[in-house]
Structure prediction request, 210 residues.
Amino acid sequence: MKKVLCLLLATSMALMVAGCSGEADTTKDANTTAASSVTAPDVAAPAESSAALADDLVDQSIGAVYFSVPKAWLKYSSRDTDDGGENIAYHSLGGNGADDSAFVMVTITDDQDVSEDNAKQRVDDLAKAVENMDWVRGCETVKSTIDDRYYAELTFYKADDDEVRDMLLYIFPVYGAGKLMITASAKTGADRDLQADCDMILDSLEIYDY
Prediction:
């Protein structure tokens, strides 16, 4: 568990530093894939998401972002970040590959200047910053939209002196708040389905813009 916490801290700090870059304006893309989001300024959050009606899911939130995760996931890190953002981490237990250090992390940066007009550039800048990190290897980036909300999906592996880890990262803009990052990680070779881990969150994701 101590090693997992160290991994989370290192990954969280690196991504938060990357998340502070980028300020250019541009327009949105126009492709479509899966997940869901809601634009509803000043609207109260739902009492319970439809996904969480299942016995094995529980509602969670970070800032104005709402989602569900399996009850089997151990929530063992929830804190404010040094730059004013928020971060929640889960030890992603369950029958999805054997890796006792697998985790899923949900982070929102503090960047109130993110808007519909500059969202594409802000997301692209963060994706580029991650791609250029020293420990990132073999990064593949896909960019698209869902419900007119631009996002980037990065698949890569993290290489350091101790081990190699598979990583999957989603980046969404939250207008008036910052950038939402959903990160899944597991040891390379552990046969963990990181897409399935992220889909647990994406399938119930609701984003309330400010």
